[in-house]
Write a structure and sequence with these properties.
The protein is an alpha/beta fold. It has helices at 16-28, 68-76, 96-110, 124-130, 139-152, 189-198, 209-225, 259-269, 287-300, and strands at 2-6, 33-36, 48-49, 55-56, 83-86, 89-90, 114-119, 157-160, 165-169, 182-184, 201-202, 234-238, 276-279. The protein has one domain (2-300): TIM Barrel, CATH 3.20.20.30. The protein is globular and about 55 Å long.
């Protein structure tokens, strides 16, 4: 089972120094991947579903969020092996050519280590800021992925889609491997079915063993029906609760708790179509304690 961790790009430990420390520690501890995500702004208006169903402000966690690709460019210079991924970028807030070139440039500087995680976005105010219609979500992501892949293809690049077009041009650099894996942040049936058509993988937020198993099966079965090779695709389960130094009680959430508890959950994921786990939810523990927990977990879940 491959293991990855989100860099502290937001939350109480979001500083360049902590990002640097965590990135180098994760590579030293033989983790497989480092991840960032995108949050353009935190609206003052209530936009986030609260526990009682009413809308509230987006979490304080998003007060500061470091830009994902700039952060990974910094991290690429400090590491040599570990994969560098976005989970996720709100792809529709960007233009395909610029986004494709930024990812390809990062891929060149990192020696081909990039995984491009895309999502369709979740905050209307971010779309308004980017001057993109909110109702472009869904179909717009299909068009975005196709346009980005066209830019990574041979020159001259030419694309004519529903929302995006590229006049015949030379567009470079290209990715080291000729392309970059695109994974979709999808948890709903519609999102998973879209990913089965257009993506190289999914990274669902994981609430339970049963749910993520069903999501992985739906994704791979959907890809197979479209004559795609399911074994060539990836499913990366993403935690929804923090890793903790002290064990949690018996009612703990799946992929939540201390390293020994997480190792038990990861063992249950074996053989269920899950390729890796990313610990994405920011921990409140000091950075040195977080590194100790990552070390303990890696020892309990050795590289396959």
């Amino acid at each position: 089972m491959k293991l990855g961790t989100m860099l502290p790009v937001s939350g109480p430990h979001a500083t360049p120094a902590n990002i640097t420390t965590m990135a180098q520690a994760a590579e030293r501890l033989d983790y497989d991947s480092l991840w960032t995500y995108e949050r353009v702004l935190r609206p003052m208006a209530p936009v986030w579903p609260g526990p009682d169903g009413t809308l509230q402000r987006a979490p304080e966690l998003y007060h500061t969020t470091y830009e994902p690709l700039q952060t990974l460019s910094h991290v690429a210079a400090l590491t040599s092996r570990i994969s560098l991924g976005t989970s996720i970028i709100s792809a529709l807030l960007h233009t395909p050519v610029v986004l494709a070139r930024r990812l390809a440039t990062l891929d060149q500087f990192s020696g081909g280590r990039v995984i491009a995680g895309f999502g369709q976005g979740s905050i209307p105010q971010e779309f308004a800021t980017a001057n993109v219609p909110w109702n472009r979500r869904g179909a717009g992501l299909d068009d975005m992925v196709a346009a980005v892949r066209a830019v990574w293809g041979p020159d001259p690049v030419e694309y004519d889609g529903r929302f995006y077009s590229v006049e015949a041009s030379e567009i470079n650099p290209k990715p080291v491997r000729g392309t970059i894996p695109i994974i979709i942040g999808a948890s709903t049936d519609a999102g998973i079915d879209r990913a089965a058509r257009i993506a190289d993988g999914i990274t669902p937020v994981t609430f339970s063993l049963e749910a993520v198993t069903a999501q992985a099966a739906r994704f791979r079965e959907g890809a197979a029906r479209l004559d795609r090779d399911p074994s060539a695709l990836m499913v990366i389960a993403q935690s929804n609760t923090p890793m903790t130094a002290a064990p949690m009680g018996s009612d703990r959430p799946f992929l939540g708790g201390a390293p020994n508890q997480l190792a038990e959950d990861i063992e249950k994921l074996q053989g269920r179509g899950i390729d890796g786990v990313t610990f994405a939810y920011p921990s409140s523990e000091p950075v040195n304690v977080q590194i100790e927990m990552l070390d303990e977990l890696r020892a309990l879940v050795p590289r396959a």
